[in-house]
Specification:
Blueprint: E1 15-19, E2 22-25, H1 33-46, E3 50-53, E4 59-67, E5 71-75, E6 78-82, H2 97-109, E7 119-125, E8 131-134, E9 146-152, E10 155-159, E11 169-173, E12 178-181, E13 190-192, E14 207-213
Antiparallel strand pairs: 1-2, 2-12, 3-4, 4-7, 5-6, 7-14, 8-13, 9-12, 9-14, 10-11, 10-13
The chain binds N-[(3-hydroxypyridin-2-yl)carbonyl]glycine (MD6) and fe (iii) ion (FE).
Residues 134, 136, 190 line the site of fe (iii) ion (FE).
């Protein structure tokens, strides 16, 4: 049974399983949120948020940057991981220790020991921004899980099946929640519904999402 607090949100520390190897760890990032956001600010000063273009020429609504040895990018040539930020021609900023620790702890709590991430995609959402259902398939090996950290405004996360048409779970992700999916759930379709305009106390009308992966 999920315990709801006074505001109707699940209590910190709750675990909600979306599959046998997919879980939301409620509030796991709350204690280090300020540290994470300070680190994002330092990363963005080096490699700013930018809207990437799909191979088909559409501008992606979400604004993105990366840290770590590899960064996820998209342009007319395709989706891929690259060690160089194409915007500034330099390597992506290093993965902060707090990202690494949080991701490894969350992965272990979800049953994935020995997670060694080398990439973190940082996404910024504004009210109305959405992310269509997709699978994460650009990583070299699918044994490592994906760890997704939500900061700022609440979003409705969609977690579907292995076919795009399968019915997707809808689950609200709040500031500090961490979702982890891997193993048999690693290639499930997922996305984010258009964000409501409901400003967050610390971050205003923004949502920042960190997806920490092993890409190489
Ligand atoms: C999110 N992002 O921003 C989740 N996956 O909440 C993703 O799932 C994602 O933004 C693959 C490539 C780009 C992405
Ligand atoms: Fe994804």
């Amino acid at each position: 049974m999920t315990t709801l607090d006074l505001f109707g949100s699940p209590a910190e520390g709750e675990r909600e399983w979306l599959g046998s190897q997919a879980v939301v760890l409620r509030g796991q990032a709350a204690p280090c949120a300020v540290e994470l956001l300070d680190a994002v600010e330092a990363i963005v000063a080096q490699s700013p948020f930018r809207q990437m273009v799909t191979p088909g020429g559409l501008t992606i609504a979400v604004a993105s940057t990366n840290c770590g040895a590899l960064g996820w990018t998209s342009d007319r040539r395709g989706y891929r991981y690259d060690g160089i930020d194409p915007l500034c021609g330099r390597p992506w900023p290093a993965m902060p220790g707090c990202f690494m620790h949080l991701a490894q702890q969350a992965a272990a709590d979800a049953g994935f020991l020995g997670f060694e991430p080398d990439a973190c995609l940082i996404n910024q959402y504004l009210p109305g921004t959405k992310l269509s259902l997709h699978q994460d398939k650009n990583e070299r090996d699918f044994n490592a899980p994906i760890v997704s950290v939500s900061l700022g405004m609440t979003a409705v996360f969609l977690f579907g099946g292995h076919d795009r048409g399968e019915r997707a779970f809808r689950i609200s992700l709040h500031h500090g929640d961490v979702a982890v999916w891997g193993g048999v759930d690693r290639l499930r379709y997922h996305g984010v519904m258009a964000l409501a305009d409901a400003p967050h106390a610390q971050l205003g009308n923004r949502r920042i999402n960190l997806t920490i992966r092993k890409a190489g």
